[in-house]
Amino acid sequence: MTRSEFLRAIDDEFGGAYGRTLVRDLVIGALGDRTAEEALAVGIAPKEVWVALCAAMDVPRERWHGAGRPEPRRD
Hints:
It is a single chain. This protein is mainly alpha-helical. It is 52% helix and 5% strand. It has helices at residues 3-14, 16-25, 36-41, 46-56, and strands spanning 27-28, 34-35. A two-stranded antiparallel ribbon has the order 1-2. Strand 1 (27-28) and strand 2 form a beta hairpin. Helix 1 packs across helix 2 (16-25). The protein is globular.
């Protein structure tokens, strides 16, 4: 997941304004008690940040693959 895909997924899942607020303000334990914005700034991969944010916000697991990305294959 690229950073632009991360931002698109945030907008699609949470809406533009609320999504930006979550990225800026929600402290997530799985990211070392950082916000998504802080996690990205220290080099944590956008996909890891996305999954942590989804878990923190109780997004159904079937939507964790992110907007604009194909669902992972189930073998």
